[in-house]
Amino acid sequence: SKLEMFVDDLPIMPKVQGFSVRDGALVPGNLTIGMFQKLWKFHRDLPATRVFAYGLSKESATVPGPTIEARRGVHTHITWENHLPSRHILPWDPTIPTAKPSSGGVPTVVHLHGGVHPPFSDGNSNSWFTSGFHSTGPTWSSPTSSYPNVQPPGNLWYHDHAMGLTRVNLLTGLIGAYILRDPSLESSLPLPSSPFDLNLIVFDRSFRTDGSIYMNSTGNNPSIHPEWQPEYFGDAIIVNGKAWPRLHVQRRRYRFRILNASNARFFRFSFSNALPFFHIGSDSTYLPKPVKTTGFLLAPSEIADVIVDFSDSPTDSAILLNHAKYPFPSGDPVDEINSKVMKFVIERQRSPDQSRIPRHLIRFPKPSPQSAVKTRYITMYEYTTPSDEPTHLYLNGKAYEDPATETPKSGTSEIWHVINLTDDNHPLHIHLAHLSVLEQREILELEKFKDCMTKLNDAIKCHVDNHAVGKKDKVAKHERGWKNVFKAQPGFVTTMLVRFKLLGPGNTTYPFDATAEPGYVYHCHVSFFFPFFK
Ligand code: C2O
Question: Cα(427)–Cα(6) distance, rounded to whole angstroms?
Fold first, then answer.
C-alpha cells in the first residue's frame, strides 16, 4: 500500500550547544552523545522502524541526530558513546574489508564531515569501537574527539565512518547536522535567522510493510560478496526523519541548509511553482555573493545553503521536486514517488521580514593555481583482477589497505586532476581540506585512454593531456566557492585546487600536526573507501 504524501509535519531536530558560557565568556563545550537503538516513526501510517540514532539520551535520540551548534574559535569536545546492541539491524557483508570486533557488537566511529581537526579526531575508519568500548579498531586512541572549530563558518555534518559498515550504519540513522557559526563575520549579514533558519536533511529509504528498513541483501556477485551491494536506492524520500513531510511557512524569506544524506541518490531540486533559490553557501562555507538558480543538483554528502523567498510565491503551496536519474547520470528517470520531496504550505498574508538577500556575503582568498606546490593525477576506474569482479572502484588502481600515496604537507595547496573513467558521477570528498573546482574537461577517445590505463595505470604515460581536450563544462556558479566534496563527472577530467591550510584571516596553517597518524582519507561518498593520505 502506498504512503500518503505531505501528512506529517517536518520535524526540527533538537539543538545541542557545542560550547559553554562561563562568566559571560565562551568556553569549550564538553558533550557526550550516544548511539542508541530505538523505534522511530518515519510516517503516520507506517509502523515504527527500528533505527540507530544519535542523542544525548535514548529518549531524546532522533533520526537525524541533534543539530550541534558550534562557535568558531571555541573547541567542542565530544565523547561519542556506543550503546548499540550486539547485532546489526541490517545485513552486512564480511567479505569486503570490514571492522570485525572480537566480542561481537556493532562497530561505529564518528566523522565530522567537512571538519578541519587533528587526525585522532577524524573518525578514521579503523578507529571504530563497540558498545562500552569492548572492542576497538587498530587506530582507536580516545573516546573523546576534539573539534577546534578554526575553519570558516558554515555547514558540516557528522556521520558514522566505520570500516565496511559506514553504508549500513548511515542507513540505520547515524547522521546529524553540525553548524559552525562566527557572529563576528555573520551578524552583519541580514540573513533569515532562527526560527526561519532550518536544516533539511534529505535521504531515500525503503521500508517493509512492518516498518523495518528494507535493504536488498543479495550481493551484486553472490559467489564473492553474498550480501554486499555497492549502492543503495530507496523509494521513499525522507526529510528530517519523516517521509514526504509538509512545513507551514510564513510568507517571507527562509534559510534552508539542505544536506543530501543519501547513500547514492542524487537530487535535482526545483519548486513546483518555479520559486528560485538564492545560494549563499555550499558544503563548508559561504559563497562571496548570492547566486540565483531555479534548480540545482545535489550529490550525496553535498550541502546547499539557500534562501527561499515565499513572499514571491504565486501560489499558496509549493512542492519541492526531484528530477535526478538514479544512478546518476546514466540510470533510470525518477518515478512519481521519488520525484517529490516535501511540501511547503504558505500563509496567505505577507509577514513582516527584516531579512534581506545581501549583495555580498563573505570573501575568502580566491583559489590561486600558482600557489600549488604539487600536481597529482587521480584516476577512478573499475578495476578487475582475476579473482575479483569489476565493480570495485579504486583510485590509481589502489585499494584502501594499500600504503598511503597522497601525502600533502600541511600549509600547502595542490592541483588535483581527477579522471573519472566510470559510468557514474562520483562525489569525491576530501577530508581536512577545502577545494575549489577550476575546470572540467571531457576526455576524447575515451576507450583508447581506458585501455591504456588498464595496461599502464599511469595517466601521464597515457597522455591524459592529449585526451582531455573535449568539451569544457563550466563549473556551476553556486559551486565555485570553497567546498569539501565535488561531483566528478564520468568521462571528464576535473581539475581543482586543494588547500591544506586554513581559509581566511589570520594563521593560515592548521594549529595541529596534520601529518600525524592515523592520517586522513579522500573517497567517493557513494560506495567504498579509497586510499588514504596523511
Ligand atoms: Cu562524509 Cu569520509 O566522509
Answer: 30
* Residue nearest (by alpha carbon) to ligand 1 atom 1: 113
Question: Mind listing the pLDDT tens digit for each residue in 122-138?
Answer: 999 999 999 999 999 99
3-state secondary structure of 357: coil
- Evaluated on CA atoms 374, 502, 254, 328, the torsion sign reads positive
- Confidence check: pLDDT of 388 > 60: no
User: Which ligand 1 atom minimizes the distance to the CA of 521?
Assistant: 2
Give pLDDT tens digits for 30-82.
999 999 999 999 999 999 999 999 999 999 999 999 999 999 999 999 999 99
Distance 161 CA to ligand 1 centre (A): 7
Is 253 in contact with 310 (CB distance < 8 Å)?
yes
CB atoms within 10 A of CB 2: 7
User: What's the 39 CA to ligand 1 centre distance in angstroms?
Assistant: 26
Res. 2 pLDDT band, cuts 50 70 90: confident
Identify the pLDDT of residue 533: 42
Q: What are the φ and ψ backbone dihedral angles of 425, each rounded to 5 degrees? A: -80, 130
Instruction: Tell me the pLDDT of the chain averaged across its residues.
Output: 92
For residue 94, the surrounding DSSP H or E stretch is none
3-state secondary structure of 165: coil
- Alpha helices in 187-306, H assignment, sequence order: none
Report the nearest-CA residue for atom 3 of ligand 1.
113
Domains, the chain, in order of start with CATH, read 15-182 (2.60.40.420), 197-350 (2.60.40.420), 369-533 (2.60.40.420)
First to last CA, the chain: 50
Mean pLDDT throughout 444-466? 94
**Distance of alpha carbon 385 from alpha carbon 492, whole angstroms:** 24
Across 261-371, where does the E strand assignment appear? 267-271, 277-282, 286-293, 296-298, 303-309, 317-322, 340-350
Ligand 1 pocket by Cβ (under 6 Å): 111, 113, 159, 161, 301, 429, 431, 521, 523, 525
Identify whether the C-beta of residue 171 lies closer than 8 Å to the C-beta of residue 213: yes
- Measured in Å, residue 119 CA sits from the centre of ligand 1 at 14
Query: What does R_g of the chain's alpha carbons equal in angstroms?
Result: 22
Q: Which residue has the cell 563544462?
A: 473
Element (H, E) at 251: strand 246-251
How is 312-329 classified by DSSP, letter by letter?
G-SSSEEEEEE---BSTT
Return the ligand 1 atom nearest residue 485 CA. Answer: 1
